[in-house]
Amino acid sequence: MQQQRLSQNLQQKLTPQQIQVIKLLQVPTAQLEQRIKDELEDNPALEEGYEQLENKSDPLEEPETKEQEDLDVTDYLADDDYESFNYYQSNRNEEIPFGFGLKQDESFHDHLIKQLGFRKFNDQDKILAEHLIGMIEEDGYLRRPLLSINDDLAFSKNIFSSVAELESILKRIQDFEPAGIGARDLRECLLIQLRADQSGTRSVEDAEMIIEKYFDDFSKKKYDQLQKKLKLDENSLKAALDEILQLNPKPGNIISSNSNSITNYIIPDYQIKNQEGELIISLNGKNAPDLRVSGDYQNMLKGYAVAKDKTAELKNTVNFIKQKIDAAKWFIDAIKQRQETMLLIMDAIVSKQYDYFLTNDPSDLKPMILKDIAQVTGFDISTISRITSNKYVQTEFGTYLLKDLFTEKMTTDTGEEISANEIKYSLEELCANEDKKKPLSDQKLTDLLNQKGFNVARRTVAKYREQLNLPVARLRKEI
Description:
Layout (H helix, E strand, L loop, with lengths): L15 H10 L3 H14 L3 E3 L24 H6 L29 H9 L6 H13 L10 H11 L6 H11 L12 H11 L5 H12 L1 H5 L3 H8 L3 H12 L7 H4 L13 E6 L2 E6 L7 E3 L1 H12 L5 H41 L1 H6 L10 H8 L3 H8 L3 E4 L2 E4 L7 E3 L5 E3 H13 L9 H10 L6 H10 L5 H4 L3
Parallel strand pairs: 2-5
Antiparallel strand pairs: 1-4, 2-3, 5-6, 7-8
């Protein structure tokens, strides 16, 4: 038996403007410029520049004079040629200097193809070589098996060769610059570079022997076994290892980092200046460009207000204009809200970590989680997370990721609350100053930290060590 029931429940629905603000909050400054440019291109009612005071009145309000020239809106709507812009920097926000990567004309694969032109290949081999070069990844490695490449050539290009033929051509490509290009694994990459070394020194010969025959011992840092197997004294082994450590494990990066992609630079979202003990917070000027609603589009609506013949076509045109003007206003308000929210949250963070921003001393970094800032600012934790994700602050000591300022709370044996970062810095210092011939185990590191008053377990030390990208003791060993 079916029954109808009435029930009440609360649902929170976001307005389009709120959705737009949420999306803009998580956009870092490095991407905001392009986001605004896209909006300017998509919405002709949005312009760069100061908001014009004379256009503050309602565009549909009846003007004082009844005399109005006929308005040809077709010309306005057909004009899609909007120029780009430069952001105006207000005196409240500084544009923090940063570098630009330059796009290079020659890409990674172009560099290899050019070298192919200087080598003697017959027509068939040249086609195979070009295909192999195309399969080499940006870091310089050829990871697709030659058997699979051979099948690809047969099925997709109707070119029939053999694995042996491809192997022969690959060996010739491996003579290209930079040395190590076309290797199928790290061992082969290092061997190619060592064999390309024409110095003929004993250390290079020993290094080649280590990689060719004892690569597993080398990768696991079993130096004692290497020394016995190669019958080398400690100095000779160290010289051979130094040769290996000078090699490039990713040779393609030498070229691809300057190829067909823009070099990425960190663009700080905030700047903190210390003016005689007072910390001044400012946004990167690119966070707050001057935008306005197009005066031309507002005038179109004024023309409609005095028009005697309001046709259906004209009404449709005006509805389109109003939608674009509303979208422009929403976007301008969203940018302003983004700016205000970012400043409020950063102000709360600086207040919490004031001493740290003055001294850059890790011991001054107080425990702080997202909830702490949410309670101070009144914003939701999700908003704090969006604002602090992928955002950077520039200080007199360097540029830092905001997320790194948030750390869990730890308690010392005296009951004092400290930041987990302070323990990490102590851990990093212990590893930096250890005897590299006998590096400290996780248990020994735990004991030393406990002696300093830090109540941490061995599993916590292991977790922090991994977060600091410090390998286990066996892999930190040196001779």
